[in-house]
Amino acid sequence: MKKIIVANWKMNGSIGFMNTFIPAIAPILTKTSNQIIICPPFPYFSSLTTALKGTKAQLGAQNCHTDPQGAFTGEVSAPMLADLGCQAVIVGHSERRILFEESDDLVKAKAAAIHAAGMTAIICIGENLTTRKSGHAIDSVILQLQASLPPSTTSQNTLIAYEPIWAIGTGLTASLQEITEMHHALHQTTKIPIPLLYGGSVTDQNAKDILSLPHVDGVLVGGASLKAEAFCKIVSAS
Ligand code: 13P
């Protein structure tokens, strides 16, 4: 079955990196039947759009503002991203929730702005290690999800990414059982079939097992999405 693979480059990359990385992954992006979304930092949108021409990969962003335009120095709006050919935007990533103090309400407003601009919102949710250890991971992630989904949400314009904070960039992946339990709970909660992604130390070694779990429709990949060989294996893992 077709899977969704999202690459989150975070604040990484350069023209030099793309000059070698994109030609290395282009062949697999041309022939894959999976849906691939690559989210580079904003300055590389234009180069990446050119480099991805002829492949099936889509352009995504890592953030946007809630308003369509205005006096918000340094910000980028959803309609601007859509104007550049962007098809999806990550919101509510734990790095933004923690480092930039983004609340559920702000995540919800950003997701609504993304929908209004005709793009897909990739809404991230996930518990910290204390919550996981306390046994309340599922309850807390469900509450976070309910508080982050705007009324404009449909199964066509939204992807939900479960990313346990303790698994991001740590090399610690949630166990297959933990992912299965959480995705089952998310599936029950959403009622409409919104695709569910897993993220957190996904690699070419574990992608196949994760992608074969029930209610795992794709993966959101950080570090491994910047390594050509590993990323190609993840794209063809399902
Ligand atoms: P890593 O794959 O590096 O753990 O990052 C996951 C992530 O935050 C993707 O959004």
What does this entry look like structurally?
The chain has 238 residues and is of the alpha/beta class. The protein has a single domain, classed as Alpha-Beta Barrel (TIM Barrel), CATH 3.20.20. It is 40% helix and 16% strand. The protein contains ten helices and eight strands. It has an eight-stranded parallel β-barrel with strand order 1-2-3-4-5-6-7-8, surrounded by four helices. β3, α3 and β4 (88-91) form a beta-alpha-beta unit. The chain is globular and about 45 Å long. It starts with a strand and ends with a helix. The mean pLDDT is 96. Bound molecules: 1,3-dihydroxyacetonephosphate. The site of 1,3-dihydroxyacetonephosphate (13P) has 14 residues, from β8.
How would you describe this structure in keywords?
238 residues; TIM Barrel; binds 1,3-dihydroxyacetonephosphate; 8 strands; 8-stranded parallel β-barrel
Helical percent range?
40-55%
- The poorly predicted ranges are none
- The CATH homologous superfamily: Aldolase class I
- Which quaternary structure do these chains form? single chain
For the CA atoms, what is the radius of gyration? 17 Å
Average pLDDT level: 96
CATH class: Alpha Beta
The number of distinct helices, counting runs of at least 4 residues, comes to 10
Would you summarize the structure shown here?
The protein is α/β, with parallel strands linked by helices and 238 residues long. It has ten helices and eight strands.
Secondary-structure map with pairings?
Layout: E1 4-8, H1 15-31, E2 35-39, H2 45-52, E3 58-61, H3 78-83, E4 88-91, H4 94-99, H5 104-116, E5 120-125, H6 129-134, H7 137-148, E6 158-162, H8 176-190, E7 196-199, H9 207-211, E8 218-221, H10 228-235
Helix pairs in contact: 1-2, 1-10, 5-7, 7-8
1,3-dihydroxyacetonephosphate is lined by residues 8, 93, 163, 168-169, 199-202, 220-224.
